[in-house]
């Protein structure tokens, strides 16, 4: 289906009061959180002028793992997130509430 048709169908569903199932909405929320993490990691890495390989070395991870995080292809564990934050010289902040989630990295002050 071409994009313009999809958009019209989507608009029609919204106008008719269509609501997605709770399972689909939860999957969307999880995907948004994963994408938010990917964006802040990528943004901070490029701000520091690091390649994925350099960030991996600083974090004790593999370049492939950094790539999967930046591509929102994996769900990292808390210890992995701690390593990543250390490698990015920042504090990782994740705020999750019922309706939304936010991910930020706060750079540490230079010593």
UniProtKB/TrEMBL annotation:
Write out the GO MF terms. Answer: DNA binding
- A Pfam family of the record is HTH_3
**Highest taxon of the source?**
Bacteria
Q: What is the designated name of this protein?
A: HTH cro/C1-type domain-containing protein
Please name the CDD domains in this protein's record: HTH_XRE (cd00093)
Record field: compositional bias (Basic and acidic residues): 1-15
What segment(s) does the record annotate as region Disordered? 1-26
Sequence ranges assigned to domain HTH cro/C1-type in this UniProt record: 41-95
